[in-house]
Amino acid sequence: MLPVGRCGRAATPVALAAASVLALVGASGCSSSQPSGEQTAVTYLDQGWGSGERQSFYYTPQGTVIMPASWLAALNGPDLQPVMSPQRMKRLGFIYDSHSTSANPYHWPVGFAVDSSSSIPTVGLTCAACHTEQMTYRGTSIRVDGGQANIDADAFARVVATALLTTGASLVRREAFERRAVAFGYPRNRIDADFRAEYGQLLAQIPEQLRVAAVTTRAGPGRLDALAAIARAVFSYDIDVPSNTNKPTGPVDYPYLWNTWNLYWVEYNGAVRQPMGRNVGEALGVGAVTHFVDPTTGKPTPLSGRWKTSVRVANIYGIETMLASLRPPPWPQSIFGPIDETRAARGRQLFIQNCAACHAVRAIASSPNEWSVRVVPLAVVGTDPMQANNFAYTTYDATKLGLSAHTTAARGLQIVTTAVQQQAYLDAGIPQAAWPTYNGFGRPGIVTAPCGYKARPLVGVWATPPYLHNGSVPTIFDLLSETRPSRFRVGGTEYDPRRMGFVQATGPGTMLFDTSVVGNSNAGHWFTNDRRPGRIGRRLSDTEKYDIIEYLKVASYADYPRVTVTEPDPEPCVASSNYR
User: Taking the model in full, what pTM does it have?
Assistant: First the structure.
């Protein structure tokens, strides 16, 4: 997910403009230099998709809105270069696809979808922006569809916000921008008034953004505090209650998507049960246009129109259905080198002995294609608690939505996403008999708030560094060790096949990850012989660590540990009656 705020709910919202920390504009970690190490050869791994599926995943609109497409095409940064220039976007971690497609008329990176369903085409982000990965190794780029993106979403939001502010503050810049936007197709008779209105909203929201900045843990490349940002978008921006500011201090890695459809619970803290509910929440967070309140008065919209949004449920269902055919990425031996079969066999036995109790496939007897996932209590796993605790304990004044003044994110989002998706089904003309299928396997729209993190199967995990839910451990070798780096660089894409992670690199687009910062702890999930908190297994020798790594390179569902359970595993700190 890439949930960020928006600066308005009008027909042409500049959804990302006010979403970031304006006080940190100068700290985005980007420079005007050309990115180094440009790659030419791209290897697409055999994940069950062809070019058609990839293009649909990359560029199908989901109903999210950044701004009119002509505006984003016309917008220049303070350096007078286009905001969407390939050089800038690559520095921010975005990926370009070499295949030409009519669905991407501006040749923007993966995940930017142009929606031409209205008279003024808009551009929004799709799940592909956050869930497509490209790593490099000795001059070759390797595409991992459904993987953990390396984008710096907050930095992109700062770039857009800065460009809008500098454009609006200068008559010369504004007039030049408006000429370009008209040339790209925006109505000449609307451009001046519409831009002035959006610029005014952006200025008005600067104080709110500064308040958020004061309590934010910088996410950087490859991470976002997704659930906190969704809740802030819905309960602050969308209903015009600025006091509903939360603390985005729990950034997480973008999770990988293969076999997500099998999982009984999704999100790192196992909070969401239903695929459509999860995806509607994503769309609301990324900038779907809502009508919860009147944009002029701030009063609740009558129920007859309150839940109408720009969310495109038919497209979302199509993408979710397609994701069910996405396979884990196979280890590319022709690039990384051959597998030591003897070592991998030893590693499989070590994995069964030390990891499978939590990370095995746990097929539910009554529904074998649905896998229970153990949500391990915080007190047991010992990893950074901020993401789970923030979601569980932050409350919001949702009286404008007919809820209480102390509504939890779980309860509020369950009610809002259910109402939004049902209205979207009606607006799209989807028969009610088909709703359970669109929801995903007839699953109910339940949102919970467990005090733990889920342990999902790890087939394909080799392609998803850094590790732990918050990306605080750079390699699998470090994860299996008794000591871990307290500071390391993130943002690089050069892969380390031996330790199973990324090579640390400096330069534009990278960031120093400091595990002493709130939300960044690298503690827990320890393999050690001492009694430290978060110990889950015995100490492993270096030989054993490399054996496990060798197995994880080639682990497949044909040889992966699998058990059958009679019912789903209970979630910690959640009454079973809440979801059974």
Answer: 0.92
